[in-house]
Amino acid sequence: MPSWLKTIPICPWDTREDFYKDADSPKMTELRAWLADKNMIAWQARYAARRLEAALPKMLKAVPESEREHVRAQFERVARSPLGMYALVDYVNFKGEGTAPTERYNGQGWGLLQVLQAMKGSEAGPTALDEFARAAESVLELRVRNSPAGRNEAQWLRNWTVRLNTYRTTVADMER
Q: CB under 8 Å to 65, separation ≥6 — which residues?
């Protein structure tokens, strides 16, 4: 671990802006090199996968019993699809499970739970991934509408949509 990180209790940057201002600093170069180390990449992947493993039980516990089967079915539908595990792992690490009070504006969440609740279909494969991406886009658009005006979250929506589009696959993609 870089020696300068050992003296910092939680996060080296106070704000997102500070983080980006520091992007080309020697500290960041050292941090990126450390994170790129083969063992660190494996640790990061393990962390992301474990978070997803814990997400489904956490989400099911957070919804009324009458909604649990729907949430489970949608989760499994996406998971059975090509790129489905990628989409689930990425989204939960990108926007959270959707169970925490801090993952809400005006009582509306934007996490994986809300995306799964918004889905309606039953078919796995490209259809499920397309619906997952559309539901996620809708949930994030609602987040932006509900967000405090001073946060200007609309500025991120385009990049979020680009990210969500990486979840989609087509039959042609599957045949390659």
A: none
**Which tokens hold the place of 44?**
């990061």
Q: Is the pTM of this model over 0.85?
A: no
Q: Give how far Cα 8 sits from Cα of 4, 5, 17, 80, Å.
A: 7, 5, 18, 41
Q: Which residues contact 174 (CB under 8 A, 6 or more apart)?
A: 82, 125, 126
- Give pLDDT tens digits for 37-68: 767 888 888 899 999 999 999 999 999 999 99
Q: Is 55 exposed, middle or buried (0-12, 13-18, 19+ CB in 10 A)?
A: buried
Return d(Cα 5, Cα 166) in angstroms, integer. Answer: 33
CB-based contacts of 139, cutoff 8 Å, min separation 6: 109, 110, 114, 115, 118
- Whether the Cβ atoms of residue 51 and residue 92 lie closer than 8 Å to each other: yes
